[in-house]
TrEMBL record:
Its cofactor is Mg(2+). It holds the Pfam family MoeA_C. The keyword Transferase applies. This is Molybdopterin molybdenumtransferase. PROSITE patterns: MOCF_BIOSYNTHESIS_2. The lineage of its organism: Bacteria, Pseudomonadati, Pseudomonadota, Alphaproteobacteria, Rhodobacterales. It comes from the Bacteria. The keyword Lyase does not apply. Pathway: Cofactor biosynthesis; molybdopterin biosynthesis. It catalyses: adenylyl-molybdopterin + molybdate = Mo-molybdopterin + AMP + H(+). Gene3D superfamilies: MoaB/Mog-like domain, MoeA, C-terminal, domain IV, Molybdopterin biosynthesis moea protein, domain 2, Molybdopterin biosynthesis moea protein, domain 3.
Amino acid sequence: MSFDTIVVVDWSARGAPSPAKPSKDSIWIGIARGGTVETAYHRTRHAAMQALASLFEAERMAGRRVLAGFDFPFAYPAGFGRAVTGSDDPLALWADLAARITDGPDNANNRFEVAQDLNRLFPGIGPFWGRPDALDLPDLPARGTLRDLDRFPERRRCDTLAPGAQPCWKLYTTGSVGSQALLGLPRLQALRARFGADLSVRPFEQADTPITLVELFPSLIAKTVAALAEPDEIKDRAQVRVLAGALAALPGPQLEAMTREGDPVEGWILGLGHEAALEAAARGPALTPPRLRDDCFAMPQGVDWVPVDTALARLRETLRPVTGVATLSVAQAAGRVLAEAPVARRANPPRPNSAVDGYGFAHAATGPGVMRLPLVDGRAAAGQPHDAPVPPGHAIRILTGAVLPEGVDTVVLEEDTASDGRVVAFDGPVKPFANARKAGEDMEAGATILQAGHVLRPPDLALLSALGVAEARVFHPLRVAVLSTGDEIVPAPDRPAQPHQIWDANRPMLLALAQGWGHVPVDLGHVGDDPRAIGAALDRGAAEADVILTSGGASAGDEDHVSALLGARGTLSAWRIALKPGRPLALALWDGVPVFGLPGNPVAALVCALIFARPALSLMSGAGWVQPQGFTVPAAFSKSKKPGRREYLRARLTAEGAAEVFASEGSGRISGLSWATGLVELPDTALQVTPGTPVRFLPYSGFGMG
Ligand code: AMP
Ligand code: MG
């Protein structure tokens, strides 16, 4: 048996509703189902329980098994339950507490009074403590040190094993889990009553039921939660989201076995002792799409030189999005790639409104010639609707953005009128519906606003906000690691270089390209031609990034250590692409992470990055395949091009709009890259170019390079 739906509840003992705006220290629920995790925020325990009960009901009807965890203790230190109920069964105490606690729909509750009543069952002071100073409850001490401490243990055994777990006697100030239990257990008892034999509480009950409740403690994986939190995400939300995802990612039998662990009297915190497995599951593949197949870069054997278009088609077929999906507030989503298409929550505009400042009326009551319409009292302005209807033949003062009052369908521009405040005069005829915006003329409610894969730009944030969309499902940004290799390379120009050494030119270029394309650059630095050092750098890249770009050592020569290593330890496929400049492209998976081995020569490295890496990275980021934008211009040069290879020449446009090319085609001439403003693409076939021959010019900007 395993669970189909995982629910993680971060509970709250607040005495009043939480703020309307999602905030911390409130009730957050994470729901992991079918490979995705959703979160919900609730202002009151009442609202949260209603949502949970309907979720459980729906899952039960659908035949899906639910595991629901709550972050408060399900039992008290041994001896307490027996002292109160006469039984060691913690569920007897749940029933007892349910009879004592009142907890209103507005969170108003009597937990401090109940704690005092419980304290009164015992001689001496305690065990419960903590209350607001203003509450006059003589048998509930304000501080823990005022208690007689020998009656019950301060913590359960499982609490002593969980760093940071608070004692359940503490009702007030930070981490007052005692209040959460007093207000939580009666709510769970209500679920037990409602779902009867379909619900069990582990580890006290062992039956396999459609709904299973367990105790959780998100701080068990606090570090991982912090590492996986989205920018500015509320901690409670991150906790339920990450923990729900982690539990869902554990193998079913392992999770099932974990729910059965623990003590029948004191209960247990699910996952205690399995923190490493939980953390691995939280970071693991269940939260991200499946990785690429080992043979994904294989090229059909026997192909000697692969045409550029074949290589591109192969990448396009093979690659897919490799990052996980998150929910972000629209305000924070600029630059991110939509993973799901957002839908308009209502029409824009929601109601017909005025496009200008002027006077509104029903068109039917107007005609040609000078019109004089009596004005009704009041006016309609943006944010200040005029509620009374405007009778036919009357007009109303109306301002831009104001909802058209009933009886108004047409607006005449203020500048075209004269008015004494009682009558408005203007020349007819006026076009029907003039200056009036129709409801939904921009977008209808329920319409798809933007497609999945769209990269959100500032105007898209305006559109989403205007249509009431507060959050968007977006891909995590693609992390692109960049590594330079070669014994001759000095990592940065602030270090001295011997005459036989050269400064690393490729790495700053490739990192900046990745960043400009909206990815997260990860600098792996430089390593010499040493297989162990290259291997260690690739290991780091595979751990910290979603894709790795290397430059240098990618051919098949003696010193081409990157391809040698990828061949030995990765799944190398050396693509001999019929392209100039740019010799083989080494493609491989290293620990499941794709590696693009680019040529070392900066001219070839840039061309290969623009032509191959750019669309490949875009696809992996979720934004889909991209093609460079270009246009045809007359050549301002002559060249006799041989057949067999596609060529990219460093080029720029003359004042007349013709393409001139850099004086030297030598691939060592880095200055030509900066001289150019784009590339001229010459076809695979032979071509005789003379001034005026149409050629294709691909500006740098068309490669997303500013
Ligand atoms: P390779 O691909 O290792 O055979 O290198 C081809 C050429 O590119 C050699 O002349 C290298 O010195 C040069 N090269 C390799 N990596 C870089 C780099 N990061 N920056 C500048 N030049 C490089
Ligand atoms: Mg080299």
